[in-house]
Design goal:
Blueprint: H1 2-10, H2 13-49, E1 73-82, E2 85-94, E3 113-116, H3 118-126, E4 139-143, E5 156-160, H4 163-166, E6 172-175, H5 206-231, H6 236-248, H7 253-287, H8 305-326, H9 328-332, H10 336-339, H11 352-367, H12 373-408, H13 413-424, H14 426-457, E7 472-475, H15 499-506, E8 511-518, E9 524-525, H16 527-530, E10 534-540, H17 541-544, E11 559-563, H18 588-591, E12 596-603, H19 607-620, E13 630-631, H20 632-675, H21 677-685, H22 690-728, H23 737-756, H24 758-764
Parallel strand pairs: 2-5, 3-4
Antiparallel strand pairs: 1-2, 1-6, 3-5, 7-12, 7-13, 8-12, 9-10, 10-11
Helix pairs in contact: 1-7, 2-5, 2-7, 2-8, 5-12, 5-14, 5-20, 6-7, 7-8, 11-12, 11-22, 12-13, 12-14, 12-22, 13-14, 13-22, 14-20, 14-22, 14-23, 20-23, 22-23
């Protein structure tokens, strides 16, 4: 039967060739998107895994016994910044030749040497030394290889030191191995602000990565698989008639099924080859798209052997199964196609999987989230998967219910005819819009969950307002309370800057003012100013007058109570310009003798001015308690970067699912018109106008789309609310106007896709189509 199937597929005339090409192209598009989704997931996991060595020395990593003969390695993790870009800095001191070596470099650098990533090395060469290179001792010993870099544009440096230099430094520890796994949550050593979720170039903690990537895989692959299944059913009715004729001529069920499987598998195999070509064309452009601010190596967008085998074997197998299911009426009886018996209507039990998925997630709302990352994956991924599957299973029953409701409330011919056809075969009607229904559910969950995450984290921080964005701040001494990020600073060992150093700082071109914050016992900013009392230091009014972006003094005051750290202590999105700080009666001559808490350096906002001032501060006070200096604008951007990354993930999911849903709808409507061209032609011969047939086609897709979409959107809000209450610890926040705009545009675009098929309806319903064959 296989040779006969190949002959019918390839030598079956113009119609067979066109059907083969269309099916191969449709499957090729779906396969290309499927391969791209798999490769993106693999790249994200690789990207995340390459951050593991950044966590070396973390107290949360499990202790492992050192190999025999391994010399310890002094390890100090730090962070630097240049022009808003994070630089991951690691100072190391090898105690012997057998000390562990970070990935990407051949050996540990000695004192006076450092290794840098290619992008950072290029930046060091192209930037004036006073703005960057002067911060780092020694010379460039080599380039960090790809094995030690999460992304091609990563800025990473490994600096060699003498053991005596690091032995008593802050954030320094001895290690006997380089980390290969990322611990769950919490800051790593050298992250002075104690971010509970690491910034972009530190990867995602293990407590969230498995859950996030599992959900992404689920929601990105489901629409693609539906599209492939839909594409394999193109011209299903036409093939039913041809195979029914074969049954009448003596072919058995098994033989007909074999012929159908061969035809579908040939087209699917060609489509798989086309899909691999599409994937190879898309790989390089996709690698260049930043993910959470960082690009992928093109080689990381790769497919594992199980991925390749699953696609190469699974897609043709799925096509063969879909073709076999499309012939179920022929297998019952060769006259089943001619008789067109009404299939059994779907039953109400179809909503049970949907309810089961909601109940599964609801269980953890009542009992709390699992403690382990694996438990979180096992808890939520099956629930979301059940809801997705439940929408597909319940869709035909909901479509039938909508059709019956429409039939009871209208007497117009087009509406009655559409309702009758929907009730006759709700499975086929829902199949056309199933991809879009899933896309709406996915979009709702993504946007609502992101809005809730934003509300909890108070995103879009703008510390100090736009006027303060170019102010560079460095904490020099211990801070008296937990800062903005929820972790108290550790006292630094570096001495305060001398008067001569401060004078040189003020002379840097582009520096417009310096405000020093000094310690003073039992000094607070009153609760009336910010809603709660804030520990304060002492600032000079003469200095504050040169930096109006940081507020002002009362008339006649010489000193005021001022925040210990403007980046940490004040409410977010707060403009300092209009604030009048409370006066403190301290003689001006006594101010210089007090301990220095922090330095705030105002600049003209230019990159050279900021970077020269930053370089000076880092060299003058390398052991400051708050880590390297950063501008208030950079502090705001870093705090927003986590939620910006979530926004990018949500956008990627939406941008993938909606176009795939549109392709599914286009293929389904076109296939439906091709399959029903003879009935429509007969209707035109009996006097039905073309405009009425257009309304029938529109209603047949619009009714299931609107009915099931409403259920999908409601399920999306419900699932997002339950997930938010458990994982985000925040009640659901309604999304903004952009969500409703996306939803409206998606539905309107779907109706436009249906309308775009009207010219095809005109061509395939001519009188010549109604002839008996």
């Amino acid at each position: 039967m296989i040779p006969l199937g190949l002959r019918l597929t390839i030598g079956g005339g113009r119609e067979a060739i066109i059907r083969l090409i269309v099916l191969a192209v449709a499957v090729g598009l779906g396969t290309g998107l499927l391969l791209t989704s798999l490769a993106e997931i693999n790249a994200i996991n690789t990207w995340n895994g390459r951050h593991a060595w950044f966590w070396t020395g973390s107290a949360r990593l499990p202790a492992t016994p050192a190999p025999a003969g391994t010399a310890p390695l002094w390890w100090q993790t730090g962070r630097d910044t240049f022009n808003g870009q994070d630089i991951d800095r690691f100072d190391v001191a090898a105690a012997g030749p057998t000390s562990p070596v970070p990935p990407g470099i051949p050996r540990d650098p000695g004192p006076g040497q450092y290794y840098a990533s290619p992008t950072l090395a290029a930046l060091l060469r192209s930037t004036p030394a006073g703005e960057l290179a002067d911060r780092y001792p020694g010379h460039l010993a080599g380039i960090i290889g790809d094995a030690g870099l999460p992304s091609p544009n990563s800025l990473v440096m490994v600096i060699g030191r003498a053991p005596a230099q690091l032995a008593h430094g802050p954030n320094t520890t001895q290690v006997t191995s380089i980390a290969t796994t990322i611990p769950g949550g919490g800051p790593r050593p050298g992250n002075p602000k104690g971010l509970q979720t690491p910034p972009p170039d530190e990867g995602v903690g293990a407590s969230g990565v498995d859950l996030i990537f599992s959900v992404i895989a689920l929601v990105m692959l489901a629409p693609v698989l539906i599209f492939i299944a839909t594409a394999t059913r193109l011209s299903a009715a036409r093939r039913e008639q041809r195979f029914a004729a074969l049954r009448l001529s003596g072919a058995t069920r098994k033989q007909v099924s074999a012929l159908a499987a061969v035809e579908a598998s040939v087209a699917a195999a060609i489509g798989v080859a086309v899909g691999f070509g599409i994937f190879l064309l898309l790989r390089a452009p996709l690698a260049a798209i930043p993910f959470a601010g960082r690009q992928f190596f093109p080689g990381n967008l790769s497919l594992s052997l199980p991925d390749i085998l699953a696609v190469v074997i699974g897609v043709p197998a799925a096509a063969a199964i879909a073709a076999r299911l499309a012939l179920r009426r022929v297998n019952v009886s060769p006259l089943g196609v001619a008789r067109r018996a009404t299939p059994r209507p779907p039953q109400a039990w179809r909503v049970l999987p949907l309810l089961a998925g909601a109940a599964e997630i609801g269980f953890f709302v009542a009992h709390g989230q699992p403690a382990t990352p694996a438990g979180q994956v096992e808890a939520f991924v099956p629930g979301f998967g059940l809801i997705l599957v439940g929408l597909v299973i319940a869709g035909p029953w909901l479509t039938m219910a909508g059709a019956r409701l429409m039939a009871r409330r209208t007497s117009r011919p087009a509406t009655m005819l559409a309702a009758r056809r929907l009730a006759d075969d709700p499975h086929a009607a829902f199949r056309a819009v199933s991809g879009l229904v899933l896309a709406l559910f996915i979009t709702t969950v993504a946007v609502a969950g992101l809005a809730t995450q934003d509300a909890r984290d108070v995103v879009k921080l703008d510390v100090g307002g736009p006027a303060a964005a170019g102010i560079l701040t460095q904490v020099e001494g211990p801070i008296a309370r937990a800062g903005f990020y929820g972790q108290a600073h550790v006292a630094g060992t570096a001495p305060a800057l001398s008067a001569a150093q401060l004078a040189r700082l003020r002379q840097i071109d582009g520096v417009t003012g310096v405000v020093e914050v000094r310690s003073y016992p039992r000094l607070d900013i009153p609760a009336a100013l910010f809603g709660s009392a804030q520990p304060a230091g002492l600032a000079s009014c003469a200095q504050l007058a040169s930096v109006p972006a940081l507020g002002r003094c009362p008339a006649g005051a010489t000193n005021v109570a001022f925040p210990q750290s403007v980046a940490d202590e004040l409410p977010v999105s707060e403009s300092f310009t209009g604030i009048t700080w409370p006066a403190v009666n301290v003689p001006a001559g006594r101010l210089g003798g007090l301990q220095l808490y922090a330095i705030n350096v105002a600049t003209n906002g230019s990159v050279p001015a900021i970077e020269r001032a930053r370089t000076f501060l880092e060299n003058a006070s390398p052991g400051s308690a708050g880590g390297p200096p950063s501008t208030l604008g950079e502090t705001s951007a870093q705090a927003n970067s986590i939620n910006d990354g979530y926004q990018q993930l949500a956008n990627a999911v939406i941008l993938v699912s909606l176009p795939i849903a549109g392709c599914t709808l286009l293929a389904s409507v076109a296939a439906g018109l091709a399959d029903r061209k003879r009935p429509f032609s007969l209707l035109r011969l009996t006097g039905a106008r073309l405009a009425m047939l257009r309304r029938v086609v529109l209603l047949e897709s619009a009714v299931p789309l609107l009915v099931v979409a409403a259920v999908a959107i409601g399920a999306g809000f419900g699932a997002a609310a339950m997930y938010a209450s458990v994982m985000i610890k925040h009640s659901l926040v309604a999304p903004g106007a952009a969500y409703y705009l996306i939803t409206a545009v998606g539905i309107i675009a779907s109706l436009a896709i249906i309308g775009a098929m009207f010219p095809l309806l005109t061509r395939v319903t001519g009188p010549e189509v109604a002839r008996n064959e």
